[in-house]
Amino acid sequence: MHNFNVSSLRDSALFHSLCFGTLFGLLYNAQPLKEFPVHGFWIVAYVSLLNTCVFYALNFVGKVRIVLVPLLFVSASIASYFIYNLEIEMNGEMIAAVMETSYFEAKEFITVRLILWIALGFFCSMVYLRTARRIVVSRKQFAPLLCVVALLVIVFQAAGVETFKKNHVEERQALMPRNITPYSLADASGAYYSSQIRMKELGQLTELGGIPSEVQGTPPDVVIFIIGESARGDHFALNGYSRDTTPRLSAEPNVISFGNVTSFAASTRISVPAMLTNATSAAPAITTTSVLDLFGAQGYSTHWISLNDRFNKNNNPTTRLINNVQDRRFRSFFNATYETAKDHMMLPAVRDLVTDGGTYPKIVTIHTRGSHWQYPERYTKQFARWLPATSDVDEPQEVINGYDNSIAMTDDFIAECIDLVREKNAVVVYASDHGDSLGENGIYTHGRMNRPEQRHVPFIVWASDAYRKAHPGVWENMKGHAASALSHDYLYYTILSLGRIKERGHRYDLDLTSSSVVAGQGSMAELLAKSSAASQ
Fewer Cβ atoms within 10 A, N terminus or C terminus of the chain? Predict the structure, then answer.
């Protein structure tokens, strides 16, 4: 009979891997304990066994382990921090946000809590490496390891049993590697790079300026197209929100607010390119340059003003579309740092463009910061109407206060743009790229396509008296669809028609100025109906 040897157990590679696999599971995949009171323990146990196999395998990689283990802990720390605190979903869009964001945007998400969480992960990795020095890998340990692997396979296969799939959908999803930190990072990275490959396979974008089009009637002097950021339609008083977040727009007689609009996606990098092109929810591929090229082909001077940084045109989904725009101005033009930049800084440039007495007609597109996280950084003191305001997710009402203050500043910005062209034959269009979650089910920011609050966006049109007088039918047709279920699908053809431009193959069913418009396309109701049909 063999005596139990504590020292040999401590130095066992399998026991060492089990200890750190369990620690890793509890640190970075503890959500099931809260979300699934009945099955949560078993899910975490499964994840811990999976981690055990990974840590055991690290015994065979030699000195590379010195790099791999800290990388594993630190990446898991970063991913789990945002999953725990903001309830983000780790997918290709999240990787895209990391890969394509600027240093300044990324810096706004760095907190003391995040730094401490990363430090804890790094410390654990150092403890692992130190204790792993004395580990002895024995052939005798392969038998129990095979049992662990067999158990994992059995559980994974059982998760595919029809009864389990039907009655425990969320628990089954929690067992998938794509939902386990940090393995979800590999799945999400694969999805991102696959999308990049597909984008390259599409080849060169079709130049919209070369597509046959014509101006019908007298074009307006100025079209201003404002692209909002992270604005939710249900937080605009104009759409019935209880707080008066839009006092200036609500007082405007020539405003139409479409209150039931669904965004193309839940992220900027997908929505904005779709807003600028004829992509639709049914045909989402971006194959052309921006709508501004069609305006340019019909004699408009084209302008792009943004407080965002300019990225490489081949890598960033938005900037690659606007290469032909005649006048492009980014944050560097305004001599503003990322921390101090506010949307109102762009107003003098807009004023110069629309009042210079130069070439008309012109289209001015303004890409705003709007309500991008962190919300208190988006507005000036005069718009701090609801206090206290913070970006601390432990204080959800204070987060909402900051968000609503940013909407109030957006209201003022749009109204100021209207004032600049009030006496001209002009239209102003505002639409946001997506919304944000504000604590619903513990979720914050954006990136989840299936969250209604992240897809419900404002879509507002203002027209001057001169424009309405010149085109009375246009205004009446749009008013008739103010309460209709709509989406970003309608934006492209509506903006063209507001500029009195029609392209070959113009889709009147997606043109809100037309009497032939068909409501509901790309709306949340349509998307949910399709999703329900697919699951049956």
Answer: N
